[in-house]
Amino acid sequence: MFTGIIKGVFNIHRVVGKQDFMTIELKLDEGLCEGLEVGASVAVNGVCLTVTSVDDEGSVASFDVMQETLRATNLSGLQEGDQVNIERAARFGDEIGGHLLSGHVHDTVTVQDIIKSENNTTLVFSFDAGWQDYIQPKGYIALNGASLTVGETVDKGVFCVHLIPETLRQTTFGSIRKGNLVNLEIDSQTQAIVNTVKAYIKGQTFN
Question: Do the domains 107-196 and 8-88 match in fold?
């Protein structure tokens, strides 16, 4: 499990691509590498990946990315030098500053617009309208692994989030551009409630 509080932005050290498969290497700082072992879970742009190796110096970690993950996320477009959001798995006793995440990305959304003012930035995203019922104004959402609050649903298939300077500094959103793909994880509680209500209404309709 993860909390959606990004611990930093790190560059892709190396990418090895194969048929429907990819291995990525990340060079992490000392704090994030502490106690990192093979089998540990790390969220890379919000995608829960398993550490497959750690170099002798304990600073470069490798992760394998399978076909379904490549299909459903933005990891397939990563290249050496690209930046990604990183979070280590939550531990018992950690402060939950965001909201609980599984690291199982549902889909990608596209940056439609970037609106900047003196101290705030608004990102506008377009998304598959099939997720519309789960993206609620002021509700939780995770984008590239960052726990955020939905600002407004601007239109069908369009929503926005408002970001403070600290979020821009600590995540890849500081350098995001129009057209970029961003990983989307729907809040699990919202999804469960919506699905339960839908099933109830459907059952009432047929009774």
Answer: yes
Compute the mean pLDDT over every residue in the chain, rounded to the nearest whole number: 91
Any idea where the domains of the chain sit in the sequence? 8-88, 107-196
| Residue 47 exposed, middle or buried by CB count within 10 Å (0-12, 13-18, 19+) | buried
- pTM (predicted TM-score): 0.91
> 67 near 77, Cβ under 8 Å?
no
Q: What pLDDT score does 62 carry?
A: 95
Instruction: Say if strands 21-27 and 60-65 run parallel, antiparallel, or are unpaired.
Output: antiparallel
Asked: is 8-88 a CATH 2.40.30.20 domain? The reply is yes
For residues 66-73, give the mean pLDDT: 95
Pick the CATH number of 107-196 from 3.30.70.890, 1.10.10.10, 2.40.30.20, 2.70.150.10: 2.40.30.20
